[in-house]
Design goal:
single chain, 7 helices
Length: 208
């Protein structure tokens, strides 16, 4: 094996090790951020915003969308190990899909257009996709799963929504006036924070 080939192998090994370290670091940060939840005035108490998608999206921008999906998966897995589940893993699987729906499209767009404009477009696309997918998953998977886990019919969950938001009178209005604004707000806040901090912290991930 030539010296040039050896050098290439060593360089690739260093890159792989650095990527593994960065994925682990961002996953750990995401798990910590997942513990801090903020209640919202327009949604029931079980809808609280956390900012754990910030490290996931940063991972998508730095290492690509596949790495971001891995970070999201590790985050969900670690949270499952720490806090357990009340939905037999259904809620965690749905949260993984919804989180990826925000960050992976943003990473794909940014990978093709490596500019501030590309980042903004990617995050906007991700926010829209997450909102649409979040509404569907909440209506047909998450809410029924939570209702089954706590022995509550869907109507009881709707009543919990009505108690904080008078516009919520059915499952459809629950999705329109609670789930959709929740995802839009979360996607917008996560995107804004990443947009502000990414350029400042990006050199850390590029250090030799």
């Amino acid at each position: 094996m030539s010296t040039q080939t050896n050098a290439a192998v060593r360089k690739e090994s260093k890159v792989n090790i650095r990527m593994i370290v960065q994925i682990g670091m961002l996953s750990a940060i995401a798990v910590v951020l997942m513990l801090f939840e903020i209640p919202l005035p327009f949604a029931p108490s079980f809808y609280e915003i956390d900012f754990s998608e910030i490290p996931v999206m940063i991972g998508c921008f730095v290492m690509g969308p596949m790495a971001g999906a891995v970070i999201e998966f590790i985050k969900i897995l670690l949270n499952l190990m720490i806090n357990g589940t009340v939905t037999a893993g259904v809620g965690e699987a749905a949260n993984f899909v919804i989180g990826c729906a925000l960050c992976v499209p943003a990473g794909l767009v940014y990978k093709r257009d490596h500019t501030r404009k590309g980042a903004l477009i990617g995050m906007a696309v991700g926010t829209v996709i997450m909102t649409v997918m979040g509404c569907f998953i909440n209506a047909y998977i998450l809410l029924p799963a939570y209702g089954a886990a706590f022995g509550m019919p869907i109507d009881a969950l709707v009543e919990m929504g009505s108690a904080v938001n008078s516009h919520i009178t059915s499952l459809t209005t629950f999705v329109i006036f609670a789930v959709a604004p929740f995802n839009l707000l979360k996607g917008t806040l996560v995107s804004l924070i990443v947009f502000i901090i990414y350029k400042k912290i990006r050199p850390i991930f590029k250090m030799k």
